Amino acid sequence: MILQFASRTTDSLEHIWEDYVMKRVAGTFLVAVYLVTIVVIEINRQGWLPAPFNTLPTNHFYAVEIAFTVLLFTEVVSLVLGLTRSFSRSIGIQLEILSLILLRDTFKQFTYFSEPLVWEQVSYSLAPMVADAVGSLTLFVIIAFYYRLHRSRQITRDEGDQVQFIAFKKLTALGLLVVFAAIGLIDLVRLVSGQPTFPFFETFYTVLIFTDVLMVLLSLRYSIDFAVTFRNFGYSVVTVFIRLTLIAPTIIGVLMAVGTGLFALALTLAYNRSGLLMMKAATRETHRVAEP
Which of 105, 181, 230, 232 is the most core-located residue (most Cβ within 10 A)? Predict the structure, then answer.
């Protein structure tokens, strides 16, 4: 009963999100957020905002950071809903989010500069800005190769088990969506009340690590094949590396991000090659044992 409810709810949310929000609303909303933020910042620069709103930023580049952050929120929702389709696909979305975070951090450096820009200020931040930009581009290329190698296969040949496994994934995704909303709501309340907010994406990726491990353990109910188990636990390690990347210093974080993408790429390539060979060998062995 619970699995059926979770499946229907998740399917409805995914349909609304992908077919209505992302295709029709998201772009317009992002443009509106960007333009409104610029206007509000300019009004505050002129000293026209009353207290307590006059504590808002006065640097126009905050508008870019806020727009990027809202875009990342939409990608996180797509990631959560993507858990219902393919574990490997969700890893691809995680890498996409990481590449966007690196791009956002490039623009974030501008929020520390005065307006108009002064080279003496920019020169000190040039190295981390270039590192973030190059790291994001490198990760973009890695993601393209990752999707090219990506192969989606059922975890079990039993149709009933496959349906049940997908239902469990939808229940997990629904729970993660609730956690995502709770983290955002708590952060919003703390922001409005003047309290320090939690690092949202770091907190979310911490929760995602436990979710990935849960998904792997659930998959063991339907398949104990070594290649599949190794690949799925390897993808969980990718999430761990992404989490560490978010708290590392800029240069180290960029190197870890690129290394994480290469690890996911190598894991997928190894699974596609050796994993299939191992499964075929196991199938032949099973047939050989079954022969009289």
Answer: 232
Is residue 59 within 8 A of residue 111, CB to CB? The reply is yes
Find where tokens 């219902």 sit.
84
Structural domain count, the chain: 1
Query: Tokens for 129?
Result: 């800005």
Low-confidence ranges of the chain (pLDDT < 50): 289-290, 292
DSSP the chain: -HHHHHHHHHHHHHHHIIIIIIIIIHHHHHHHHHHHHHHHHHHHHTT-PPTTGGGS---TTHHHHHHHHHHHHHHHHHHHHHTTT-HHHHHHHHHHHHHHHHHHHHHHGGGGS-SS--HHHHHHHHHHHHHHHHHHHHHHHHHHHHHHH-----S-S-HHHHHHHHHHHHHHHHHHHHHHHHHHHHHHHHHHTTPPPP-HHHHHHHHHHHHHHHHHHHHTTT---HHHHHHHHHHHHHHHHHHHHTTS-HHHHHHHHHHHHHHHHHHHHHIIIIIHHHHHHHHHHHHHHH--
As to burial, measured by CB atoms within 10 angstroms (0-12 exposed, 13-18 middle, 19+ buried), residue 212 is buried
Report the C-alpha gap between 196 and 225 in whole angstroms. Answer: 46
CA neighbours closer than 13 Å in the CB half-sphere of residue 193: 9
Rounded Cα distance, 187 and 166, in Å = 31
Look up the domain containing 99 and give its range.
2-290
pTM of the model: 0.84
pLDDT tens profile 191-224: 667 677 778 888 888 999 999 899 889 888 887 8
Provide CB contacts within 8 A for 110, sequence distance 6+: 59, 61, 64, 117
